[in-house]
Amino acid sequence: FLALPLAVTTASAGPGPAPLPLSISSVLPAPAEAIPGREGFDLTPDTVITAGGPAVAIAEQLAAAWRPATGFPLPVVEDATNNAIKISLDGRLDGEAYRLGVDRDRVELTAGTPAGLFNGVQTLRQLVPAEIESRKIQKGPWTIPGGRINDRPRFAYRGAMLDLARHFHTPDEVKRYIDQISRFKINFLHLHLSDDQGWRIQIDSWPRLTSIGGAPGTGVRGTGGGFLTKAEYREIVEFAAQRYVTIVPEIDMPGHVNAAQVAYPELTCDAVAPRPRIDIRVGYSSLCAGKEITYRFAEDVIRELAAMTPGPFLHIGGDEAHSTPHADYLTFQERVLPMVGKYGKTAIGWQEIAAAKQPNAIVQYWNHQAPPLETTGRVIMSPADRAYLDMQYDLLTPGGLHWAGTTEVRDSYSWDPDQLLSRVPKELVFGVEAPLWSETLTDLAEIEFLAFPRLVAIAELGWSPRSTHDWNSFKARLGAYGPRWTRQGVHFYSSPQIPWS
Ligand code: TNX
Q1: Is 232 an annotated catalytic residue?
Q2: pTM of the prediction?
Q3: 320 lines ligand 1 (CB under 6 A)
Q4: Residue 6 domain-assigned (yes or no)
Q5: Complex confidence, ipTM
Q6: Residue 401 CB less than 6 A away from ligand 1
Q7: Beta strand segments in 164-262, E
Q8: Beta-hexosaminidase bacterial type N-terminal domain spans which residues (predicted)?
Q9: Which atom of ligand 1 is nearest to the CA of 390?
Q10: Is 437 touching ligand 1 by the criterion CB < 6 Å?
């Protein structure tokens, strides 16, 4: 991996440090290998994009991204020799890997799968000047720096999580978030769809979950409310799929179920309806492990959720079940985890499920204050003091909580996902995820402020080989990305640790 050149351009005037010139390695997350070349490629009014078969859809995405600011037609055609961006599948590459070559006459992007091509397109989009993010025609020039990139992910799972339960977020907000995270090669979005305050996904066999649990006022402090219909959920799944993001739905059980119990009091042990809750305490609600209706409920929800989810994973929560007796917790999980397999999915659960027998389940590590995690299955790393996007940057920044401490950008970047847990062999680390809990978040601007830029640190830990890990390089590339977010209208936190240009 080559560090960024240290020279600064004279082209930019005005206040603040002059931006670093774009080079082939000015990419977030850092590519596995980036080798600068001599001459770059200029996008011009005559540039064409060539693609065939399944590559056409990806080529069209690239053209659509570049047309507004360049004003160039950028037609997607079958073949061309010069002044072309060639996008094609190559059976010698696999999975999410891609190769990119840029010289004076052409740009060549190859990958073994459309997902790999999509990743390459995200890289390419960062290699043209930030003005490309504008919706109106800009002057250019549109030079892509010369060189070669050979890139592949370190971990298969690179996730983000959005909590729709504490405050509901609309399908449009979720889509906008997906669009943003997919630029950094995040490939899973976990949606936290139920909690004590609200229930956010239509389940036909238990309709009061949403008519009561998703009613207006079912958010923290009584603000918000709402839920996703199955049609809206499917639309989100489809929107995400076009960006090679897979949705992982979560229904949290056996704790965090107050909203379900308000709607169906028979889901409590004494069948007495609890009061609706709009505060942010945790650990007081529990399904009743001794009642059969509990398992009918769990199975109905899992069956319907599996049927509307094409992705391979269902998350069944399992965290902070402080009011479930331990033996009941194990009984519950050992009956419910296999239901996920019965409907063709692999279960993911928060780290507490590691106490149960759960042969194929994936454990999501979150609480750095808990005893060392021991498990024989795969692990997703979300240490709260590093990866939780809802931790405040410092005690003065708005939004978020600080129960796991404050987390500046450098804290989110400075750890190694497969070295953190001494008792988990590194082969079992499936990837990383950056959860964003919504106790304090009502709108997209608040979401963006906490997510960006820290989500990019987690994305780089998930994608880039450890050999590229370098805070100085990361902060320079991040600083250069700021103008893109500004043009996109993303409300990011301009951390004082980063040299924003
Ligand atoms: C802990 S982390 C929780 C959530 C809260 C979050 C707030 C986890 C699995 N459970 O219920 O929203 O802290 O940071």
Answers
A1: no
A2: 0.95
A3: yes
A4: no
A5: 0.95
A6: yes
A7: 188-192, 246-250
A8: 26-151
A9: 14
A10: yes
